[in-house]
Structure formats: structure tokens, C-alpha cells
Specification:
It is built from 13 helices and twelve strands. It is an alpha/beta fold. It has three domains: 161 residues, NAD(P)-binding Rossmann-like Domain (Rossmann fold, 3-Layer(aba) Sandwich); 103 residues, 6-phosphogluconate dehydrogenase C-terminal like domain (6-phosphogluconate dehydrogenase C-terminal fold), CATH 1.10.3660; 73 residues, ACT domain (Alpha-Beta Plaits, 2-Layer Sandwich). Strands 3-2-1-4-5 form a five-stranded parallel beta sheet, with helices on both faces. It has a four-stranded antiparallel beta sheet with strand order 10-11-9-12, covered by helices on one side. It has a three-stranded mixed beta sheet with strand order 6-7-8. It is globular, with a radius of gyration of 24 Å. The two termini are 43 Å apart.
Length: 362
């Protein structure tokens, strides 16, 4: 196997080998980087080492970069400790809030001339070292939250690490980052969680009707409550601001829906729904483009190899898959594969799949 040369010149120490830390280790090891693993749990280190994410720490280690991948409530203290322990290293972290951590490091007397916060917007519903993936960051945004205390030349090592892992480098201030993730990550977590909570006491008959829409809205509601208490607490003010505006939108929608035949109510409802269309159209699609795709639903027998056969035949037809969602039909051995393709390809793909015996549901 060919190893692509790294941009880094020295070892990387990863503190905390959960999902992100292990994935960083796996990605850097694929480029031949010497990765040093550290964690409060020796078992986690052993698992990550066995998976090939790096090696255990030794007394003579002199890392070029230290990446702190620990829970937000201890991130600042670990950063200060690592800055002191490795006076030649640049230290970064991957916590999902930046300004409170920077302020805490400064307050603790940490050497911020060697610290810059960062945040990869990548993850999975499952955590721990066994969930680590070398390709977790490929094509994903990774924010570097620069500040006046660190030079561009010093911070460049963190840029090199991000590019080594295949992520897309995004530069922001800590304040810009925190307000941005409040809108696109933290508030959606709250909304998803509260919607899912409505299901806890719902009748089985209602839950059994759940389709892809409900799954989409509640997918992230299974995230770790303990971690999210820390994240939301650290970024409370920006999240509250977004949620207050969302509450005003919701109140306005409720008022219109409470009397849908009143003058102006239907127009108000329609404008709110259209506003949602406008907003979702701005979410970057494949390759970062604001491009909407057409979709068709194909019925797939719930047997081994059928989904793979569908995707293979799409390749033979010459149509590129832009996105895929899979839903099982309740009480039947059938899956519904919703395939997103470029609009100009949907008619040709539909006809070609039908000719090959596939059942098109929509």
C-alpha cells in the first residue's frame, strides 16, 4: 500500500481516544505519522493501539502537536497541562465550543502563543475507540478559531494536521464559531431531542406509523445526554438566542394554525413553509454546492446482496448516486431505497431500472 507523505514534521500526541481521538490517530497513521495515544482509561488506549491508531506514551516523547479530545468540561484544564508538559508543542483541541475554552486557558495562565482551538464538524452516533474511522474527516469542515495571541506561522502546524486528515479548513474567530454551531448543530440537537421525547408516551399504533420524516427529525436525539449537557452549558447564550427566535417562529405558526380559516392564516402558514424551503436550499450539498437533487424510491427485497446489486446496476446505467436513504417497510421483507440523483438523470434512471425488473415506488 502506498503511504501518502504527511505535511507534519514530528509526532502527534492525541489525548483522549474516543471516536474523534482514535479517528485522528487512524487517519494520521495512514500517512505514516508517529501518533502517541493518551487517555484516562488504559483500556481505551489498548483498544486504540490494537486498532492501529498509534502507540502508547513514553517518557522521551517530544510531540510537534498535541490534540486534546476530551469532554468539554475538562478540555481547558487538559490544554493547560499539556502546554506545560510539552513546551515545544503546539496544542489544539476538538471541543465543539471555542470561546469559553480560550477564556479559561487564558485565565489559568496557559501559554496561548502555542494554543489554537479547532473543531471538526464530523462524528457518528456511536462513540469510543472501536467506532474510530480513518476517513471520518474526509471532506468535512474543520474550523480553526484563531486569536491574537498566536502567530500564523505557529498555527500552521494545526492547518497541516487538518489537511493531512482530508478535512476542509475553515478559519473563524472563536465567537463566530460558537454562534454558528449554535444555529447549525446545538439548537437542532435540542429541537430533535424534544420532538423525540414526545414519542416516549405515544401509543404503539402511532409509533408504528413512523416514516423517514420522523427518522430524519429525530436521528440525532440518541446522542449522549451527559456530553450534550456540557456542550449546551458551555455555549448557552448563543443557543438560547437561536431557541428564542425559534420559539417566536413556533408561536406565530401555532397562532395561524389554531384558526386556519381566519383571514390571512393560510397565507401565513404557506409563507412559513416556503421559508423552510428557502432555508433548506442553502444547506451545502455534495461537494459544497447548493444543488438540489431529484429522487426516486426503489423497492428492494430485504435479502443479502440486493442493495449492492441496485447500486452496481446504477453504475452500469451510468448514473451517479448523490445520496441514499433506506427505510424498511413495516411488516414486510422489503426495503425502500430513496435515491437522489441529478434532475436530468432521473427519467433515464427510472426507465432503465424498470427495464431491469426493479419496482419503482415513487
Amino acid at each position: 500500500m502506498t503511504v501518502v507523505e504527511s505535511r507534519l514534521t514530528g509526532p502527534v500526541r492525541v489525548v483522549g481516544v474516543g471516536l474523534l481521538g482514535t479517528s485522528i490517530g487512524l487517519g494520521l497513521r495512514a500517512r505514516g505519522v508517529d501518533v502517541i495515544l493518551s487517555d484516562a482509561s488504559p483500556t481505551n488506549v489498548s483498544i486504540a493501539v490494537d486498532y492501529g491508531a498509534g502507540r502508547g506514551a513514553t517518557d522521551g516523547d517530544e510531540p510537534q502537536i498535541v490534540v486534546v479530545c476530551v469532554p468539554p468540561d475538562v478540555t481547558a484544564s487538559v490544554i493547560v497541562r499539556e502546554l506545560s508538559a510539552y513546551p515545544r508543542a503546539v496544542v489544539t483541541d476538538v471541543a465543539s465550543v471555542k470561546k469559553p475554552i480560550l477564556d479559561a486557558v487564558i485565565a489559568a495562565g496557559g501559554d496561548v502563543t502555542r494554543y489554537v482551538g479547532s473543531h471538526p464538524l464530523a462524528g457518528r452516533e456511536k462513540g469510543g475507540p472501536m467506532s474510530g474511522r480513518a476517513d471520518l474527516f474526509l471532506g468535512r469542515p474543520w474550523v480553526v478559531a484563531g486569536h491574537a495571541g498566536i502567530s500564523y506561522q505557529t498555527a500552521a502546524a494545526v492547518d497541516d494536521l487538518i489537511l493531512d486528515l482530508g478535512a476542509t479548513l475553515v478559519e473563524m474567530t472563536a465567537e463566530e464559531h460558537d454562534s454558528s454551531v449554535a444555529l447549525v448543530s446545538h439548537a437542532p440537537q435540542v429541537v430533535s431531542t424534544l420532538m423525540a421525547r414526545r414519542l416516549a408516551g405515544a401509543p404503539d399504533a402511532a409509533v408504528n406509523l413512523a416514516g423517514q420524516g420522523l427518522r430524519d427529525v429525530t436521528r440525532i436525539a440518541s446522542s449522549d445526554p451527559e456530553l450534550w449537557v456540557q456542550i449546551l452549558g458551555a455555549n448557552a447564550a448563543p443557543v438560547v438566542s437561536v431557541l428564542e427566535e425559534f420559539r417566536a417562529d413556533l408561536d406565530r405558526f401555532i397562532d395561524a394554525l389554531a384558526d386556519p380559516v381566519a383571514p390571512g392564516s393560510r397565507r401565513s402558514i404557506a409563507e412559513e413553509l416556503a421559508g423552510g424551503n428557502t432555508g433548506v436550499a442553502r444547506i451545502p450539498g455534495k461537494h459544497g454546492q447548493d444543488r438540489r437533487f431529484a429522487s426516486l424510491v426503489v423497492m428492494v427485497d430485504d435479502t443479502p446482496g440486493e442493495l449492492a446489486r441496485l447500486l452496481t446496476e446504477m453504475g452500469e446505467i451510468g448514473v451517479n448516486l448523490e445520496d441514499l436513504r433506506l427505510e424498511h417497510s413495516p411488516g414486510a421483507q422489503i426495503g425502500l431505497a430513496e435515491i437522489a440523483v441529478l434532475p436530468e438523470a432521473v427519467e433515464r434512471l427510472t426507465a432503465a431500472l424498470a427495464d431491469r425488473g426493479w419496482r419503482i415506488a415513487g
